[in-house]
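Re: the request from the purification team.
They wanted to know what the chain is likely to look like in 3D before they choose a buffer screen. I agreed to run a prediction and write the result into the notebook, where they can find it.
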Amino acid sequence: MPAKSNILLGLVVGVSCLLIGFALSTLAYRYHYMRVPGPGLIERMNRELNLTPAQRDRIGDILRDTRFKVTQARQDFEHRRHELFWNGLGEIRGVLTPEQQTIFDRDFTQPWAHRGHGGGDGAGHMPPAAGAPPPAPAQPPSAPQN
């Protein structure tokens, strides 16, 4: 009896390991931690187009430069997207009374501030948004003197 349960346990552990390995490798390929085996683009172009060494070098330079530009554009886009998002929240905050702002800061900015998504100060307080109306003053301004 114990030998049968040991074999069954070993089988369950083995299948579990295979499934976990499959899932992890799938994620690694999906998120580009691992590359799909096979020749790269330059090697394929060289084989199919019969490139000269100068062409291969130039194409490699172009691909590296393009990859850098795409990465930079993606980072710029993410930065701009976060900036627009926080500016929008700042504009919403500017419409609210001081009491509402306190609740807004506590309940509506926390999920994004804690995830490191932008302009909160870590305590859930919004940065002043560009173009947002300033918060209402605590006391009305005195009448202008002539």
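For the purification team: The CA atoms of residues 46 and 56 lie 7 Å apart.
Please add any questions underneath this entry.
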